[in-house]
């Protein structure tokens, strides 16, 4: 069984080594299609033994990807973006998984879990199931100028979801500093497609998503409604997302839209996707906006509970909102005088992001009457006394909060800490 790894690249010198390192032990052949790099992307690829081919960029990602498919000779193909990479366990298990299913000719492809990460903060933005592995020379091709879809003779390939093995791909391409440039590029491509009546089941969704990111909320609403009217949208992993974009955009323009109208779409979303955490999250946002605090708390808790067992049949953007959801729960619980729950929720925020000053300040407010030694002991379950970054954060945070005693304590601890940590 031969495995070919494919990718397309342009000026990806800072990413491509990480990507190729994650596949070199699995792939028998590496195919890189370069679409016009001016840095040393090609040289790096060749240093990994990749076969490099050149393709003149024509504003169509599918064409470039299919050029790579034409060059690949493997029985199975891995297709990653240059800013994606396999997790270490996936690297070890991938060949075994493919050998296991190779004789099952009804399976054309394998689902992987994509974890989208902000490279600057390390924060998980979202997770979604996506095909990154499929049979070679099987009629599977990419379609669509951007956000390409894999299709086999016009239909989605039959894919296996390997439940006993975690096949994880990490993706850093949605980092905040890269988003505006990518969005403007993709908007132009999709607008041209719409002008030429080249519309896929995801075109309107992507238009809505990009306009929402750019804070063009009227346009986001327009395209979210068009996406909901697209019959084939419900067959995609993003099926529920137009509701999320629609409701969040309406909440941003609440002077134009009544809560009654917003609630109508929320109810529709919950009816269609009752087990998806993100539809309960938008309900929580709407209830919070209306100051319906018990209902907001109920919805946040429902979203968090569903997220714990969500099987990722659809995209899940709630993962990136987990920190803010716990924070809102803490603030809302505190407003009702439920300080025990508020303390628990602030603690959950800090477990996700221990540099969240607002959560630390909220937690401190609830325990400030304790003895300093007890506060220090409690915080030691989150912050390590050997970690200089932790101690520096606590020093400056306590100074900002106004607790000079604790600020001085953490300053002295910082000076004594091992500089390596």
Summarize this structure as a short list of keywords or feature phrases.
single chain, 421 residues, alpha/beta, Spore Coat Polysaccharide Biosynthesis Protein SpsA, Chain A, Serine Threonine Protein Phosphatase 5, Tetratricopeptide repeat, 9-stranded mixed beta sheet, two-stranded antiparallel sheet, 17 helices, 50% helix
The total strand number stands at 11
Going by helix content, strand content and strand pairing, the class is alpha/beta
CATH architecture of the largest domain: Alpha-Beta Complex
Mean pLDDT: 94
Provide the low-confidence segments as ranges. Answer: none
**Helix-strand pattern:** EHEHEHEEHEEEEEEHHHHHHHHHHHHH
* Percent range for β-strand residues: 5-15%
**Annotation field: number of helices:** 17
Euclidean distance between termini CA atoms: 46 Å
CATH class of the largest domain: Alpha Beta
Q: What profile does the largest beta sheet have? A: 9 strands, mixed
Which fold name is given in CATH as the topology of the largest domain? Answer: Spore Coat Polysaccharide Biosynthesis Protein SpsA, Chain A
Task: Itemize the secondary structure elements and their pairings.
Elements: E1 3-9, H1 16-23, E2 29-34, H2 41-47, E3 51-54, H3 61-71, E4 76-79, E5 84-86, H4 88-101, E6 109-117, E7 124-135, E8 140-143, E9 149-152, E10 159-160, E11 168-171, H5 179-195, H6 203-213, H7 217-228, H8 241-252, H9 259-272, H10 277-289, H11 293-308, H12 322-335, H13 339-352, H14 357-367, H15 372-379, H16 388-401, H17 404-416
Parallel strand pairs: 1-2, 1-4, 2-3, 6-10, 6-11
Antiparallel strand pairs: 4-7, 5-11, 6-7, 8-9
Helix pairs in contact: 5-6, 6-7, 6-8, 7-8, 8-9, 8-10, 9-10, 10-11, 11-12, 12-13, 13-14, 16-17
